[in-house]
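Sanity check. The docking grid for pyridoxal-5'-phosphate depends on where the pocket ends up, so I'm generating a full predicted complex first rather than guessing from homology. Inputs follow.
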Amino acid sequence: MSNRDWSARDLAVLWHPCTQMKDHAALPMIPIRCGQGVWLEDFDGNRYLDAISSWWVNLFGHANPSINAAIKHQLDSLEHVILAGFTHEPAITLAERLVQLAPPGLSRCFYADNGSSAVEVALKMSYHYWRNIGQPAKTRFITLGNSYHGETLGALAVGDVALYKETYAPLLMVPVTVPSPDCYLREPGESWAGHSQRKFAAMEAALALHAHETAAVIIEPLVQCAGNMRMYDPVYLTLLRAACDRHGVHLIADEIAVGFGRTGTLFACEQASIRPDFLCLSKGLTGGYLPLSCVLTTDTLYAGFYDEYVNQRAFLHSHSYTGNALACTAALASLDLFERENTLSRNHALSAQMAAATAPLTDHPHVAEVRQTGMILAIEMVRDKPSREPYPWQERRGLDVYRHALTRGVLLRPLGNVIYFIPPYVITPDEIRLMAEVAAEGIDLATKH
Ligand SMILES: *Cc1c(COP(=O)(O)O)cnc(C)c1O
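Predicted complex below; grid placement will be based on this.
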């Protein structure tokens, strides 16, 4: 069976995520036969460097021997069991370790099975807590412009990326949306911290106006990943934590994309020394192996639900695969790797190499900015550098970069006009250079016409 054979079978029966299927009349589908480390291999023997960690989930490479072994071992004793009334070792051990690793005070873990569901859990829990303690008017949420929190209806409602949201607007609850502290929009000469701090005024005003009807503020700490990898300074988080406390509003940190070392620290919140009331984790949680998510929260929140059954305060939310044993086992193996391989400090060197490899692009006539937070690096391609006028989205210049990169054996998946790297942590300096070189060629090609 070749690529062509598998593609034909695929296109006859599958409907792919985030895809206009008609594109595949011209754009080949790529069937992957196997993965090893940062490399994916198709059925024709072509190899692709997975520069985006297969949608930001993979941390320690494909077919990682340690994670593979842990899952195989677990498989022989327990694959899955109902998590209501029953429990199991991987779920317990993982919760213990997450509590230990998360900002102090996050002492309870509620499992779900994907990122959007974790966001739903946090939103419902926040609202329900206020209701349980006699504040039922707190039913709204405050969110940032350009934010993304998933695509189920509740998660979509508190996001702000028009591409995913606009069509479904009539189905969605309406949050209060505050302009993003996104530092791409800073004034010339303004520092990231200065810009993010200045942008906080709008959040402060929204809280002053809406706190009485607001359950929580939800944010993606430091990097708005799906919103074109826009970044901001930790000072915004510090100010937000203090303001949420002052106004009696919860803070939900959606670290589904940025958690597990992407921003340089294990959790992005650490860079502002804050503890959110809810910490949502998924994606890298299992090292990119299996779907799992977890919402960590505080004793105070937990106590708001703890009561006699007949008082009807319990959080009655469930997903069938909640706390899946194989997924928890993969997560534990991934956390072991962080410890054993000293991943966070090794990543400092990799981040520096990513910066060095892309530094020349800063001077490219169609690159407005090369920005980086830890292991996330993004390149903003524009039509006009001085005015930062973007290319019209209809031209799909990012797709030119995608196509070129594939011919050179690199999987890049630009968000509109933004080319970015979120590589697995097992990437080598040579592979970083290849990734940067291919991105630069792709940008040349895409901006020539
Ligand atoms: C990916 C993502 C989600 C949604 O997670 P899924 O598992 O895709 O549902 C939520 N928030 C952020 C910040 C994400 O990047």
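Relevant for the grid: Residues 114-116, 119, 148-150, 220, 225-226, 254, 256-257, 282-283 surround pyridoxal-5'-phosphate (CB under 6 Å).
Also worth noting: The radius of gyration is 22 Å.
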